Amino acid sequence: MTPNQRKQHTDAMIIAASAPRKNWLGKHRPINSVQSAWVKSLLAVWGECYGGRTTEEAMMDGCGFWSCLRSEEWSDAEACRITETIKDLRKIGYTGENLLKMAHAILWPQKSLADAIAGQIRQDDTDFVEKSILAALRNDDPVYVVGVDFYARRKNVSDIGRYLQKVAPWLTRKQAEDRVRWCISHFNCAVFLSMRKNIYQVNGK
């Protein structure tokens, strides 16, 4: 991190530490278990591949996974299919870019070269999750900062909680970790709603 990024990170953590309750961190619309599993699995892959870039650093996705995801008709059944595919691939050792490529081949098998070319013309094949995150949250929002630490920097709840205690030593370990969980929950919900909105827009709904 640059000094400015480090200061922004610390300032956001101080705000998170100051939260007296979950809804103080922003509006929270609960999502169901299927939706939660879907967004968590996609965020985990995002964190492995692309996490934490700025808008200017967002790059093209070579395997086409995110553009196919954008063109999906949203339903809990489709969410389960995607989640289970990612889970099964993880069990046999796939991660990151390799996981995306294999999931793409399983979920959306290529029918023909003509179909592939038409798909590329129809879809802007950019990093769908990254853009959904940046559309949902400012990069100085404590919810964003904690979410990026958790998914992209691969820090666990206790690691982030210990950092919160450093900037806010009056918090107990449980209080610090509770605030981390609140932020992650808000992050998941905000990103889910942003991604679903994006999918609906692509499909003209």
Throw out a few tags for this protein.
205 residues; mainly alpha; 10 helices; 67% helix
Commentary on this structure:
The chain is mainly alpha-helical and 205 residues long. It has one domain. It is globular.
Shape: globular
Poorly predicted sequence stretches spanning 5 or more consecutive residues: 54-61, 116-126
Q: What is the succession of H and E elements?
A: HHHHHHHHHH
Mean pLDDT: 83
| Computed Rg | 18 Å
What structural class do helix, strand and pairing data support? mainly alpha
Helix content: 55-70%
Number of helical elements: 10
* Termini gap: 40 Å
Count of DSSP strands: 0
Largest sheet: none
Number of domains: 1
Strand content: under 5%
In short:
The protein has 205 residues and is mainly α. It is built from ten helices and no strands.
Q: Would you spell out the secondary-structure blueprint of this structure?
A:
Blueprint: H1 3-18, H2 33-49, H3 65-70, H4 76-91, H5 96-107, H6 113-122, H7 128-136, H8 142-151, H9 157-167, H10 173-202
Helix pairs in contact: 1-8, 1-9, 2-4, 2-5, 2-10, 4-5, 7-10, 8-10, 9-10
